[in-house]
Amino acid sequence: MEVTTRLGRGVLYTSVLVTFLLTGCGGQKKVTILRDAYNHPRIKVDNAGGETDSLLYEAQAKVEAEDRLVQMDLLRRLGNGSLAEIFGEKAAAQDRMALSVGFKQAARESWKVIQANYPQVKNMLEAYARGVNNYLSEIGNKPSVVRGLYQQWTHDKNFSFSDPKKFAPWSEVDSLVIAAGITFRLSSSLEEKAMMGKVAMTLIGVPPDLSKIDKFVKLFDYRPIENTFILGDRRGPLVAKKNKATSLEESVVPRKLPAKAVFFGAVLEDYGYPFTGPMRKSPSGSNSWVISRKAAGGRQAFMANDPHLPLTFPTSLYEMALQDARGVNLVGMPGILIGHNKRIAWSLTNQPADVDDLYLEDLNAAGTQVMHNGKWKNLRVVDEILRVRQDDGSVKQTTLKIRWVPHHGPILSDHIVPFKEVVSKIPKELFENPAISYRWTGHEATTELVAFYLLNRAKNFSEFKTALSYMKVGMQNVVYADVDGNIGYYSHANVPYRSYLTPWPVNVPVLGSGEMDWDSDSTGKTKWRTTFPEAYNPTSGFIVTANNDPLGYTLNRDLSQDYWGSTWDAGSRAQRITEMIQAKLGRIALTDVEDMQYDHKDLLGLKFIKFLKEQVPATINPSREYQEARSALINWDGLVTRDKREPVISEMWQRAMAAEHFKELVSASGEVDVLSNLTGATLTAKTLYHTLNDSFNSREKVKMDASVSLMSVALANATKKLPSREMRWGQYNLFKFYNAFKDFLPSPVFPTIERDGTWTTVDASGRKDDTGEQQGPNLRLVMTLEEGRPISGVNSLPGGNYDALVSDKWIEELDMWQAGKRRELVPFVD
Questions:
Q1: Which of the residues 51, 434, 498, 668 has the least number of beta carbons within 10 Å of its own beta carbon?
Q2: What sign does the CA torsion over 72, 768, 104, 747 have?
Q3: Calpha distance 146→314 (Å, rounded)
Q4: Strand order in the sheet with 300-306
Q5: Is the C-alpha dihedral spanning 664, 665, 668, 670 positive or negative?
């Protein structure tokens, strides 16, 4: 057996050693693992025949566990509800939530389907699990920083990673439960619908006044601010012909609603949601675009991607090369998520289709059946084990009985305290034994890992689409390019039809009695959409996705017609990227694409300032503070950079306008919390913009005067709340990595840095006011597909590949990322 050879800061594991560690075989099969100066592993398997995949994914698991074992373990515990097993009672509420929502159950169902139908993916998951467990056996009880953490957490000085009673071996379901948790974050609107129920209650009242339902519907405007759609406004037959209205008064359908339905919104009055508040999440997003060779004006095509996930510790992504594919993946799952192989490149942005619902159920007195379509149906019960570490190191074990409504999903009000409180307030005359259930497409057995297994091996657009047809949840905009010069786009997932929306507003909880179910066929099976956005070699020569509406579904106020979703981005980032591409068509180089990713022009802010300049008389408020703020805004170039003070004024002004616009809602509720969930959100910006724009377009004096007053009063209020008249954006928009497990995991000493950009700029920067969590580019990847040459790439990862608990090397990548610079993408093994 050969020994490990060190090459500078990289490490070369020689083939015989790694093969021995992974398989226990001799030297015929060759596994090479190299690490570069940035700790990016590259793995290649030779002479292994049918065992290539097994060895490849065992090796991937081993290197990821070497670098991110703590993160991998916490992610699986977060999904399978076992954080309290090491962190005690303070994590028990989080575990009850995870077990109630059903991530573990969803992962189990997916594993059954994969075992029965997809042998290659089954082999991939089994190999990944072996690789992690081989590493656990290797490190055992050897002294290390990571082992020290577990000794502390478990109160066990004899803790060993190789003891299955002390540290659970990795399983195939662990990878799938991580996938379920990630797709939930990307696709779920549970928290938003819960808050919308509360807003509905505030406006409609208790007991509900059904005549006020239109007031709630008219409160929000889901139309985009920029009509920049991924495929243009090509709705055609996908949208009902009668859906032609553009004004609110024309488009809202009269609502005739059962009192019980509205009351579900009413009972959310004291709703204390266990997740972070729905609209408090920073309204950031992701960008991805592809430019053809012809549009670029030479022999090179370009693809860019910068997903805007939370900038947390541990960092979300991990860069590596696997055989013939390279890019980034999410630790705990095998394969490459974003990147390229030898033939094609692909990149992702989230597609926020509406794929879940909250239901108010009517149970029998015994709590064993649920009323549905006039009949009692039996509930299903799943026993889940909750383990809670005690102060003396022992573990207390209890059984949680998770009741499932067979046609909807798990009941959340059994074990999640805020939901319990909600149902306890429902009068017996409406529901004798109420419960809240949750339906999400991720509860079905899903095959996302099948999709990415095939995507990593796809050779052309047809195989690319076939791979994505296995995406069932966590819908993505996936952009495509190949070495033959073709570009394309496809998006696929299970998206339901909701016929009941004709009388019912979107994004609120619904009744579980049957009349508000997703559409189904004659056999009772859910009817999923069969047409999806798609493009191949468009005449424009480029495709831009930035979480924007793909086809113009939200151009009309009434979304009930052919409803797909409502929470798409306002379109500012997509519009800005499109403008920059169009400005350089025929002469685009790699450096131009890199500059586009690092652009900080705020189109949304400039739109509001245009109203201020053209519609609000300069003399409306003669105070020095007002005039200085007004002058700064109307002379601003729209660049949100850390050295400017105008972005601070713009940000404070927009927040003040939101507060002024929604003051009736705040006054009615008596709670500032409602406002805190509305200010700074994408939906608020859309509503505010269209309120102003429609009023000025109407030329009606009353409406115009109201808008002028709103803007001027808000600017006056903003000047009083400015932290400092001279504060720069960089001082206001400070960034520091957020510890996602701060209650359990020690935080390394992270630097605080000044960030450019805001949530509407291409280089986006957003922050949750309540937690400090920031969102922004988790990578800045640009791939070049040059005629006659291999695909190349440049990238930067703000958190690097290193584990910040044991190394500070990640700081090098953070500096590079902050400056908008990149280095070569991890190379393949030659």
A1: 668
A2: positive
A3: 14
A4: 542-545, 287-291, 300-306, 781-786, 792-795, 823-824
A5: negative
